[in-house]
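the two lines:
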Amino acid sequence: MQNPRPALAELERIAAQVRCDIVRMIHTAGQGHPGGSLSAADILTALYFGVMRIDPARPHWEDRDRFVLSKGHACPAWYAVLMRRGYLGVECLGTLRCLDSLLQGHPDMVKTPGVDMTAGSLGHGLSAALGMALAARITGRDYRTWVIIGDGEMQEGSIWEAALAAPNLKLANLTVILDRNRIQNDDFVERIMPIEPVADKWKAFGWAVHEIDGHDMAAIVDALEGTKSASGPTLILARTVKGKGVSFMENNPYWHGNAPNSEQALAACAEIRAAAGLPEEDNNAC
Amino acid sequence: MPADQYCYLRPGVRELLQEGTLFSRGEKRTTRFSFADALLELGGERQDVVVLNADVSRGMGTYTFADKYPERAFNLGISEQNMIAMAAGMAHSGLVPFVATYAVFATLRGLDMIRNSVCYTRANVKFGCGHAGITPAEDGATHQGQEDLNVMRAMPHMTVIAPADEGSTRSAVRAAAAHVGPVYLSLTKEPLPLLYDDTFPFAIGRAVTVRTGSDATIVANRDMVAQALLAAELAAQEGLSVRVLDCHTVKPLDSDAILRAAAETGAVVTAEDNVLAGGLGSAVAELLIEERPVPLRRIGVPDTFLQSGPYLKLLERYGMSPRHILEAVRTVVKQKAAH
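prediction for all of em together
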């Protein structure tokens, strides 16, 4: 069952550990998407350690809050949080993308405990989350559904089908967090296909929109908690930094989908560790 | 003359087949409305059945469910991608969503969602899709779902069913609801003759011999079962004894029934009004070439888009009429004899 929420400093410490896990997983796999995993790490930590009603011992508990990572390529962040939260054993850490691993290259709800929805092809997860939120109403359950979408993902047409539907279906039990890290696979979002004004677009579709710094743990927790009493669907516009916490990855489109080598992984973990004041032994594998 | 027998036919259908007046004089109903009727019944029995529409609830007949159970029916507008991924989310939250739209829109516009969010996750979503094959004949090529079965057959975990008439469609809806996992029901726009009586033994994955015969077998599904039966009557007039298999489930294919028919009749014709690439005919050909090669001809939509026109005239124009099926039967029987 839900533990008392850890103090902010503890959430920040967990998020730093999650960042190191992300770097190590992707380095070991030699593949993966570090930039968008690191940008979502604080939000995922807040959800799983501070906000969601969950029980890691019962991943299929019918009254649990649901979480969907619509930007499925950021799954190393999700896996790291699920490991730290006790859904997965820490031995999974080195198995990302390996044959017979629980940790698929993109999230697979059939294989991975704690993964509530498969994702990978962009623009699905938001709609699936709408379905979960609507099902809660039909079945008389009071769980909430939380979903993280990407800013590049907003270019998918189906996102706007779902954006139109959720307010009309009055899905007050749905919270969408937009990981606005400004970078997609090829380049900066605003150089590929600009999406601004983002907040105005969602407001025009009927959503309550709250803008936050997506790396300010206090702001994240406050904003997420605030949506629990919302009267309609909410979009948290989380302004984030792609590659957050690893200076050579930050704001660099290269790190959307490339793995760090050994030297880079060591440097990345050392930087994350130092910034969070984590002891050496927490990251001896890096 | 061979003494071939019909099985499970409604009273009077045999005579209409023999007169060749099945379409002009027989009682007919479009299977999309048969689907909607069955769904309405199911809604009264199961609280977990919900219906998702995309602005064609009139065309699918599913407005009746929405009228009776408004709290369990949702018209999501013209947005098939959102509808199908939502259905996956609902299925994974304990509901049994029936998605109702036309075949082209679900299987092509929504294919990515069917593949990744429904089939890959084994979501318990049911698709009832009208306007399959060339049956929305006058609507023209954009609306003719001539590749629905072909595309759905390529989806792992999907069960693919194309029933031939009102009664078997109603049975298929119940079977789909009872089955755990994604099911695709291929339905028509064109009203189809009511063929079967209450004894028709519908079961997913079990082809039904609806006419016995020993010289050749026609394996058909959906609307082409009626055409196959008419072709078998034409063949009988020439002294040919032709078996007809209603192969309503395209996946999983009833390999036993098809191999038995191939062994016992030694010649096979397939009849569908989907494109030939990857459909029922392909499925049967794949099986026979590996397990029991016999003379085989496939009737279906050639590699082209059709035009607007009356259903029966389109079948005639594009090589799928009873006359064309008969010609294919003659060919395989000759090939068998030459062996």
